[in-house]
Automatic annotation (TrEMBL):
<dbReference type="GO" id="GO:0005506">
    <property type="term" value="F:iron ion binding"/>
</dbReference>
<dbReference type="InterPro" id="IPR036766">
    <property type="entry name" value="Fe_traffick_prot_YggX_sf"/>
</dbReference>
<comment type="function">
    <text>Could be a mediator in iron transactions between iron acquisition and iron-requiring processes, such as synthesis and/or repair of Fe-S clusters in biosynthetic enzymes. Necessary to maintain high levels of aconitase under oxidative stress.</text>
</comment>
<dbReference type="GO" id="GO:0005829">
    <property type="term" value="C:cytosol"/>
</dbReference>
<dbReference type="GO" id="GO:0034599">
    <property type="term" value="P:cellular response to oxidative stress"/>
</dbReference>
<keyword id="KW-0408">Iron</keyword>
<dbReference type="Pfam" id="PF04362">
    <property type="entry name" value="Iron_traffic"/>
</dbReference>
<comment type="similarity">
    <text>Belongs to the Fe(2+)-trafficking protein family.</text>
</comment>
<protein>
    <recommendedName>
        <fullName>Probable Fe(2+)-trafficking protein</fullName>
    </recommendedName>
</protein>
<dbReference type="InterPro" id="IPR007457">
    <property type="entry name" value="Fe_traffick_prot_YggX"/>
</dbReference>
Amino acid sequence: MSRTVFCEHLKKEAEGLDFQLYPGDLGKKIFDSISKEAWGQWQLKQTMLINEKKLNMMDPEHRKLLETEMINFLFEGKDVIIEGYTPPSE
């Protein structure tokens, strides 16, 4: 049985995540107010960021940077800027 949330990123009702994918209060906030679709969009951005900036997930500074980008993307409506990446034109 899927659950519906009001997605803060998409600004609409959408299918919610099946379980909390991120730890702590931020994880709960994501679970309660970010849809599967928006999380999927973030996962793509996150992969690009990790590759672009050669981030190491064992490095607390790198994790903090990613978390900040994630909050900006999911909750502040800011797109992730990837150096040298041009989105395909419509």
